[in-house]
Amino acid sequence: MTDTRICGFICSLFRRGLHHEMRGLSNYCLSCCANTLLQTLSATWEVGDVLERWDAAGVREDRGNVPLKLKRVLAAMKSDRPQHVPHEDFLCCLDRNCVRLNVQHDADEVFLSILNLMQQQMDDKALALEIKDLYKISVETHLRCLNCTSVQTHTSYLLSLPLHIKEDHHNSLEDCISSFLAEQELTGINCCFCAQCGTKTRSKQGLKLLSLPRILCVHLKRFRNSRGFTRKLNCRVAFPETFDFSEIVKERFSPDFAQNECTYTLYAVVVHSGSAVCGHYTAYVRDRVNQRWHYADDSHIERASWQDVQRIFGEDSRCTAYMLMYRRGPQEERQQPELSG
Question: Any idea where the USP domain is (predicted)?
Answer without folding.
Answer: 23-329
